[in-house]
Write a structure and sequence with these properties.
mainly alpha, elongated
Length: 165
């Protein structure tokens, strides 16, 4: 069962990373287009809003993939000086705190998205709804907590944290 969940986590995180990469590419293209357009004529309308929306997608959707590849800063320097059983407990404890934190973040972000949905809040220039991008960040936090939860299970079973093939 855990192997299936791990494969699902890798698959989900890869899809989210592709979407995050596409959003980042769009941000680069939009920034370049805006600079060129500003130099020769008028700036691209709504660039600031679109950069914010695409930045939210990029940041939210890259969380789980970054956790899979251990790209985040980890405070393991102190843990290495303890005996192996203590390291396991400390790794599991810090993973649990991180998992709970990202579940909390996902929940609060989802509630904020529902609030924006109920208000029908839109951006000022382009009139784009905010809530889908807020939900994207919430989903990214869920993916992150899912990967951390699988890492905790692997640590407690005496295995190395999940690494994609």
């Amino acid at each position: 069962m855990i192997d299936y969940l791990e494969k699902a986590a890798v698959w989900i995180c890869r899809i989210l990373a592709v979407i995050a990469g596409a959003a980042l590419t769009l941000m680069i293209l939009l920034a370049c287009a805006n600079m060129v357009s500003r130099a020769v004529w008028i700036p691209v309308k709504g660039t600031f809003e679109l950069m914010g929306f695409l930045g939210a997608v990029t940041a939210g959707f890259s969380l789980g993939f970054s956790q899979l590849h251990r790209s985040h800063i980890a405070v393991g320097l102190l843990f290495r000086h303890f005996p192996a059983p203590v390291q396991v407990v400390l790794d599991a404890l810090s993973g649990t705190v991180s998992c709970v934190f990202f579940i909390f973040c996902a929940n609060e972000t989802y509630k904020w998205g529902m609030f924006l949905y109920d208000l029908e809040e839109v951006s000022e220039t382009l009139g784009i709804h905010f809530y889908p991008f807020v939900f994207a960040v919430a989903f990214g936090c869920v993916a992150m907590s899912f990967v951390i939860m699988l890492d905790i299970l692997r640590i407690l079973r005496g295995k190395e944290p999940l690494k994609p093939a």
